[in-house]
Design the sequence.
């Protein structure tokens, strides 16, 4: 498991594009790290954890009928 401080983060004001870019940067960094990040952590202005956004969440946001 990757340490929390190594995870990509976005603020609650971030757009979906911001989150996708955070995923991309995390995957690029994976080459230099032994951990593969599959989530982006959502934080508030005070760096408090609010939740996580998975790659699956992004797919569902882009294609609402994905499960159908």
Sequence:
């Amino acid at each position: 498991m990757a340490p929390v401080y190594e995870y990509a983060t976005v603020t609650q004001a971030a757009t979906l594009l911001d989150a996708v870019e955070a995923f991309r940067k995390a995957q690029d960094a994976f080459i230099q790290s032994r951990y593969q990040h599959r989530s982006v952590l959502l934080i508030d202005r005070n760096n408090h954890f609010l939740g996580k956004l998975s790659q699956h969440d992004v797919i569902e946001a882009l294609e609402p009928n994905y499960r159908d």
Notes: Residues 29 and 36 are 9 Å apart (CA to CA). The chain has a mean pLDDT of 82. The radius of gyration is 12 Å.
